[in-house]
User: Fold this.
Amino acid sequence: MIQQRAARIGFDWPAARPVIAKLAEEIAELEAELDSEADPDKVENEMGDILFAAATRKFERRLRRVEALAAERGIAAGLDVLEALWQEVKGEEDRG
Assistant:
């Protein structure tokens, strides 16, 4: 399962509270896109971030890229470092 794979390399939250904060962050991003009357692709992208269960392929694609970057850079694990790589990958996708 993809969640177990992510947890094996330390890309997992130790408790539910940080996950809720992450969801709130993603919801705020969606709200900002809606408030700016963003194009439908941007809104869909933000919705995909919220709907992890419905966006498993997206998560897996990003996770594979995070794993590749971590290997290239000699990074073993650590939530903060992996979160930074995740944001880097997300930025790459957003820029197309």
